[in-house]
């Protein structure tokens, strides 16, 4: 008992380095995941410098070469294209589509959710019926429907997946707005004489933006998954774009004797999705005052 | 023009809620009304402090919402400096917002969790334009120190503060606009005894130093006695007894006040018998005195006549046909 009572909390670290180290030790998985995501972002941004080959460059001397020390570290596909290079370029498409789609979904969801939650009445009713119709189908099916209207291509995929995400984002934003609106601090501001616009701007939006940002980080991985799904079934990004979903689909027929063709982009996709969701959870913990730990 | 001595005046305020027809949604009976406030008369003078006590459901919060202009009375008038609270506009409204500050029971909920303590305490200053941007930090530091919090708190958020500290922040924020009245709903309940005692002392010091009026809702008669020179006892939407706190608590005139006193826990004494009987529903009130069903003093006339709140002694009024002191002077 005595040492429990006497042991003081660990002394706050003083130097900057020690503080950083303390943070890393407290959030090992978050830091690892963040580094992984950072590596993907770096690879995507500097793909021409990082990748040994151009993504569509064919090596006529090596088709379906297995991973080996040499020119093609992770092997080549059935067209003789370097899988490492294609996978690195693929990170560009994955992140671009994921972030772009989430930006559209979160932006649209913020506008609709705020309008519905703040205005109420008929406007809310109409907007929420619209959202219901967006939510009637799973996002993948929804995106397929939009693609069939819009046509194929990276920009179309971003738009299709983004619009499919507006529904869930709208719904959570509206729920948060209603919940925040009923908080005593909103009434307190009104009593102080703060006007409606200032209340929305200062008290309501900051309290819905943070949960929205958290949700957005978590949904990036979902958007990437959906877009890969679209490419995989052949209606998303068109070949020979080095899109992971497309690459997995191409490698599918050779999976029994050249598993690396689907395996390399598949692993790249899986690792990114896991890392993103760990980062998303970490962000939630950081920004939710109820989950945030002291110190 | 001299300012009237009264800050707040409630003139026979009634607040009734429509609660649907008897028998539920599809019933065809007469519409029923729940009178949360039923003819409340109350005034609060500058520098005075009044405690409002009563059981749960007696209408205390409703009274406070009417005073703050958050709900409008269905009958009677609620005045601030002789003007209708719900009709305040322009300068009058600004003045009301500046002069009347609220301390919530849910102090944490009344403070935006995304704002730093600095911004929270400075919000009234900013909103009412009460200080230059360069003085902002100093003013907030002074307010924090006034409620016993160190200036380092400024950068923090309420999530990192204890319950007692959060209440202090709420008080500092309420004081920021130099209000004439502090209105508080159960401002010290739900805290441990020593924190409660510190906050009560703080509030009493503020009252004495700043001459601020207080309207303090509490179910704790001890708190009422410590903080407020006047008390108003509510029962089912009515004030049933009012007067100087020390007079009312030492010699209650209304049987309900006495019952509250007996039910209040006293140290070193066995817990008294709780109040017998049930609070009748505020929807279907029996004729006559609304306390008759639970009143040990009730006689036949109590079930026929509804007693009004009338002056029964100097500075004292009660609504009882057979008061425990003297006899009311019927007008
Ligand atoms: N919006 C409303 N609609 C219908 N009835 C209401 C409403 N607000 C309050 N009431 C009723 O009015 C009565 C008085 O409620 P009020 O909240 O003022 O009581 P109170 O004295 O503050 O109680 P407590 O000590 O529990 O806070 C209660 O019977 C309550 O159910
Ligand atoms: S009027 Fe009668 S019933 Fe009502 S409180 Fe007085 S004695 Fe009791
Ligand atoms: Mg209440």
From TrEMBL, chain A:
The UniProt entry, under Pfam families, shows: BPD_transp_1 (PF00528), OppC_N (PF12911)
- Where found, per UniProt? Cell membrane
Going by the UniProt record, its keywords in alphabetical order are: Cell membrane, Membrane, Transmembrane, Transmembrane helix, Transport
Q: Where is the ABC transmembrane type-1 domain?
A: 91-280
InterPro entries recorded for this chain? BP-dependent_transpt_permease (IPR050366), MetI-like (IPR000515), MetI-like_sf (IPR035906), OppC_N (IPR025966)
Q: Which residues cross the membrane?
A: 28-54, 93-120, 126-150, 157-173, 185-204, 216-237, 257-283
Question: What GO terms describe the biological role, i.e. biological process, of this protein?
Answer: transmembrane transport
Query: How is this protein positioned relative to the membrane?
Result: Multi-pass membrane protein
Q: Which organism is it from?
A: Methylopila capsulata
Question: To which protein family does this belong?
Answer: Belongs to the binding-protein-dependent transport system permease family.
Protein name, per record: ABC-type dipeptide/oligopeptide/nickel transport system permease subunit
This protein's GO cellular component annotations are: plasma membrane
TrEMBL record, chain B:
A single GO CC term for this protein reads:
plasma membrane
Record-linked InterPro entries: AAA+_ATPase, ABC_transp_ATP-bind, ABC_transporter-like_ATP-bd, Oligopep_ABC_C, P-loop_NTPase
- State if Nucleotide-binding is listed as a keyword: yes
- Which keywords does this chain's UniProt record carry? ATP-binding, Nucleotide-binding, Transport
What GO biological process terms are annotated to this protein in UniProt?
peptide transport; transmembrane transport
Recorded GO terms, molecular function?
Answer: ATP binding; ATP hydrolysis activity
- State the membrane topology: Peripheral membrane protein
Chief location bin = membrane
Intracellular or extracellular location(s) = Cell inner membrane
Give the matching PROSITE patterns: ABC_TRANSPORTER_2
One Pfam assignment? oligo_HPY
Q: Does the keyword Nucleotide-binding apply?
A: yes
Q: Which SUPFAM superfamilies match?
A: P-loop containing nucleoside triphosphate hydrolases
Domain ABC transporter intervals: 8-261
Protein name according to UniProt: ABC transporter ATP-binding protein
- Provenance organism: Methylopila capsulata
């Amino acid at each position: 008992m005595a040492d429990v009572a006497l042991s003081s909390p660990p002394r706050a670290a003083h130097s900057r380095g020690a503080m950083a180290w303390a943070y890393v030790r407290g959030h090992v998985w978050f830091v690892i995941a963040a580094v992984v995501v950072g590596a993907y972002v770096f690879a995507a941004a500097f793909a021409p410098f990082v990748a040994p080959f151009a993504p569509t460059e064919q090596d006529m001397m090596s088709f379906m070469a297995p991973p080996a020390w040499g020119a093609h570290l992770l092997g080549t596909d059935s067209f003789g294209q370097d899988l490492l290079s294609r996978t690195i370029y693929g990170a560009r498409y994955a992140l671009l589509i994921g972030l772009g789609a989430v930006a559209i979904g979160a932006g649209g969801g913020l506008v609709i959710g705020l309008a519905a939650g703040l205005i109420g009445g008929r406007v809310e009713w109409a907007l929420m019926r619209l959202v219901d119709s967006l939510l009637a189908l799973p996002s993948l099916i929804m995106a397929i429907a939009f693609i069939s209207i819009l046509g194929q291509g990276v920009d179309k995929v971003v738009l299709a997946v983004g619009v499919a995400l507006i529904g869930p984002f709208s719904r959570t934003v509206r729920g948060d707005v209603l919940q925040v609106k009923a908080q005593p601090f909103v009434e307190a501001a009104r009593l102080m004489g703060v006007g409606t616009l200032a209340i929305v701007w200062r008290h309501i939006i900051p309290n819905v933006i943070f949960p929205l940002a958290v949700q957005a980080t978590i949904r990036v991985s979902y958007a990437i998954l959906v877009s890969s799904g679209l490419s995989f079934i052949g209606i998303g990004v068109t070949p020979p774009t080095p899109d992971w979903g497309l690459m997995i689909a191409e490698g599918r027929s050779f999976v029994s004797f050249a598993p690396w063709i689907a395996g390399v982009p598949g692993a790249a996709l899986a690792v990114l999705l896991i890392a993103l969701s760990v980062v998303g959870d970490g962000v939630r913990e950081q920004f939710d005052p109820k989950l945030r730990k002291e110190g | 023009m001299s300012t009237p001595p009264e800050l707040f005046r409630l003139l026979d305020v009634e607040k009734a809620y429509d609660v649907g027809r008897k028998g539920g949604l599809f019933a065809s009976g007469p519409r029923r009304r729940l009178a949360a406030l039923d003819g409340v008369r109350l005034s609060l003078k500058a520098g005075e402090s009044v405690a409002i006590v009563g059981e749960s459901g007696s209408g205390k919060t409703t009274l406070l919402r009417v005073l703050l202009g958050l709900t409008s009375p269905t009958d009677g008038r609620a005045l601030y400096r002789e003007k209708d609270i719900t009709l305040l506009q322009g300068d009058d409204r600004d003045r009301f917002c500046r002069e009347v500050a609220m301390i919530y029971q849910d102090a944490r909920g009344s403070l935006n969790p995304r704002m730093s303590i600095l911004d929270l305490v400075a919000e009234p200053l900013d909103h009412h334009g009460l200080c230059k941007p360069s003085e902002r930090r100093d003013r907030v530091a002074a307010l924090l120190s006034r409620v016993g919090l160190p200036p380092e708190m400024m950068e923090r958020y309420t999530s990192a503060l204890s319950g007692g500290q959060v209440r202090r922040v709420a008080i500092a924020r309420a004081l920021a606009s130099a209000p004439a009245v502090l209105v508080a709903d159960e401002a010290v309940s739900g805290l441990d005894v020593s924190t409660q005692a510190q906050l009560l002392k703080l509030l009493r010091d503020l009252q004495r130093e700043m001459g601020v009026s207080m309207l303090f809702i509490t179910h704790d008669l001890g708190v009422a006695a410590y903080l407020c020179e006047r008390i108003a006892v509510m029962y089912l939407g009515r004030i049933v007894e009012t007067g100087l706190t020390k007079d009312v608590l030492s010699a209650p005139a209304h049987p309900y006040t006495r019952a509250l006193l007996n039910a209040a826990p006293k140290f070193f004494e066995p817990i008294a018998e709780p109040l017998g009987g049930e609070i009748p529903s505020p929807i279907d009130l029996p004729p006559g005195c609304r306390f008759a069903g639970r009143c040990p003093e009730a006689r036949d006339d109590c079930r026929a006549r509804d007693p009004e709140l009338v002056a029964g002694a100097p500075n004292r009024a009660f609504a009882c046909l057979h008061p425990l002191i003297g006899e009311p002077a019927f007008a």
